[in-house]
Amino acid sequence: MSRIGKVPIPLTSDVKIDIKGDLVGIKGPKGSLSHALPRGIAVERDDANLTVTRRNDSKEQRALHGLMRSLLANAVEGVTKGFSKQLEIHGVGYRAQVKGKAVNFSLGYTHPIDFPIPDGIDIKVEGNKVTVSGYDRQQVGQVSADIRALRKPDVYKQKGIRYTGEQLRKKAGKSGVK
User: Fold this and answer.
1) What average pLDDT score do residues 8-13 get?
2) What is the homologous superfamily of the domain 83-163 according to CATH?
3) Domain residue spans of the chain
4) What stretch of H or E contains 172?
5) pLDDT score for 176
6) What is the pTM of this model?
7) Number of Cβ within a 10 Å radius of residue 159
8) Which of 22, 84, 99, 152 sits in a 20 to 30 Å window from 175, CA-based?
9) 77 SS3 class
10) How large a percentage of the chain has pLDDT more than 90?
């Protein structure tokens, strides 16, 4: 049995679970998410827990068992608490500001970059810190990665956009030609 898959998902009173065939809908105070179940995976609701079971012990079913349990647990946590990632902007003249439904970045290019804010995502800018938050963990991570890709951290000059706490090893530049 899968170690991750057999752990029940605890539910709070403000989470509503709707199981219709192969679709599991999860609704909470922050939003609602739904996941389609793969063939052979079933979800059952007890009093205060959600359990994921599989049909057989094939390699594919074992992998999907743990995956679906993790996805559903992330959905339950997302609609109750939410997720956030924080990025830092390093560089002289590099800055960001929220303008309506977009974030305007000045990152040393010849033109500013307008990054549209997707639905379900909230972006806050405080000084050189950008906080991306939302209830869908995958979407928060993807938006954070897209923002980081606008100006990846440079290992030579230590400039760019990086996750808070991300360590960069400074590389030595080329020495003079001998």
Assistant:
1) 91
2) Ribosomal protein L6 (3.90.930.12)
3) 9-80, 83-163
4) none
5) 63
6) 0.88
7) 19
8) 152
9) helix
10) 82
